[in-house]
From TrEMBL:
SUPFAM superfamilies: Aminoacid dehydrogenase-like, N-terminal domain (SSF53223), NAD(P)-binding Rossmann-fold domains (SSF51735). This is Glutamate dehydrogenase. The active site is at K126. PROSITE patterns: GLFV_DEHYDROGENASE.
Length: 393
């Protein structure tokens, strides 16, 4: 028989010490400490608090793959369904040799909060496995073409126009909102971008189109500074030709770490987790940080950025443009009717702007930073559905 967690006395809850970071770089702990802060401010009831601190389901799988040479290799993969109360668990699969279960758990939780902060009818999940994308294999299993099951597909196969640019576009849109809120003009605002792949290069291009001056860019192979403004199209063309920024001549080469500490209006970390830590946070000189990557700032670095008065647009909001257009892709596939790129971008704009304003309003109301406010918006939306559907739904 199920115990009604809501009826337990509050003092039976052991809340972890929110100021204690066992491992600054453990992404799941980072997620949890932010979750705890928001849950406390929301005065979340004990039952829902406990439910939301744990993934619904975790699976470890062995995936057999027939290699090109005919040999069969078996790869380990993880799938974490963090929460499905708001809808099917959305979240891609990370293909990487270094995936860990803790990382997949954190990414699945972030997908839950990300989908909720932009109010998509999805829960959150993530997977990690080492092989090529699976849509053909999945379609083979179900005996028909299942376009709606995989998002980020080529447009010719049921993908959405605008998906490739969506995450970078979302970064540009929330940066625009943030600068307007802070009374800083977009035109002439200086920007540094770490990571020049899908998210970073598109964010740089779209911010430049809005009048910003991109003074620093970097990727795994090089970092460049140009106080007069980098020609972003030339940098994109360079990467297209050489597959990296190495050898780019449109700026002075600088140390890779220095991209994060340039004196700029806006810093866009769009490469990796855990790049802003207690070590370098005191040296960061940006006024606004737009987190294009998932988890670029450690939880222990948050208070340092707060003390410096840096306005951080948190990852679960800043990079939610990608999952939003993936949602649009799912909707279009289910209808079998596809929107023009202008319609996709307009609807993305509506969602990103409204979500930014929802978070900003709560941040003012509770006098908390944007990250805590974003978690509060998400957690309260997920918690509401648990209450409406019954606590165990
Ligand atoms: N692509 C998407 O739609 C979304 C991506 N994200 C997150 O954004 C981040 C970037 O994703 P993508 O742009 O799609 O990946 P990508 O693989 O296209 O680009 C990654 C970029 O980061 C650079 N990079 C890697 N290590 C670096 C280092 N040590 N220093 C500087 N640059 C480094 C790479 O050289 C590359 O330019 C990831 O954290 C990803 O999880 C989040 C939401 C959606
Ligand atoms: O739903 C998608 O397209 C993936 C989005 C994603 O991986 C993320 O937001 O971290």
């Amino acid at each position: 028989m199920a115990i009604d967690l809501l009826r337990l006395p509050t003092d039976s809850i052991v809340r972890p010490d929110k100021d204690r970071f066992l491992n600054e770089e453990n992404p799941f702990e980072a997620m949890m400490s932010r979750f705890d802060r928001a849950a406390e401010l929301l005065d979340l009831e004990p039952g829902i608090y406990k439910i939301l601190r744990n993934p619904e389901k975790q699976l470890t799988v062995s995936v057999p793959v027939m290699m090109d040479n005919g040999d069969v290799e078996v790869f380990t993969g993880y799938r974490v369904l963090y929460n499905t109360s708001r809808g099917p668990a959305k979240g891609g699969i990370r293909f990487d040799m270094n995936v860990t279960q803790e990382e997949v758990k954190a990414l699945a939780a972030w997908m839950t909060w990300k989908c909720a902060v932009v109010n998509l009818p999805f829960g959150g999940a993530k997977g990690g496995v080492i092989c090529d994308p699976l849509m053909d294999t999945y379609s083979m299993h179900v005996g028909r073409t299942e376009n709606a099951v995989v998002t980020g597909k080529p447009v010719e196969m049921g993908g959405s126009l605008g998906r490739r640019e969506a995450t970078g576009r979302g970064c540009m849109l929330v940066t625009k909102e943030a600068l307007e809120h802070l009374g800083m003009p977009m035109k002439g605002a200086t920007v540094a971008v770490q990571g020049f792949g899908n998210v970073g290069s598109v964010a740089a291009k779209l911010l430049a189109e809005q009048g910003c001056r991109i003074v620093g860019i970097s990727d795994r192979f090089g970092a460049f500074h140009n106080k007069n403004g980098i020609d972003v199209d030339a940098a994109i063309a360079h990467v297209k030709q050489h597959r990296s920024l190495e050898g780019f001549t449109g700026g002075d080469a600088i140390d890779a770490d220095d991209i994060l500490t340039l004196e700029v209006d806006v810093l866009v970390p769009a490469a990796l987790e855990n790049v802003i830590t207690t070590k370098n946070a005191p040296k960061i000189r940006a006024k606004v940080i737009c987190e294009g990557a998932n988890g670029p700032t450690t939880a222990a670095a948050d208070p340092i950025l707060d003390e410096k008065g840096i306005f951080v647009i948190p990852d679960i909001l800043a990079n939610a443009g990608g999952v939003t257009v993936s949602y649009f892709e799912w909707v279009q596939d289910r209808m079998g009717y596809f929107w023009s790129e202008a319609v996709v971008n307009e609807r993305l704009g509506d969602i990103m702007t409204r979500s930014f304003q929802d978070v900003l309003q709560l941040s003012k109301q509770h006098r908390v930073n944007m990250r805590t406010a974003a978690y509060m918006v998400s957690i309260s939306r997920v918690a509401t559905v648990h209450r409406l559907r019954g606590i165990y739904a």
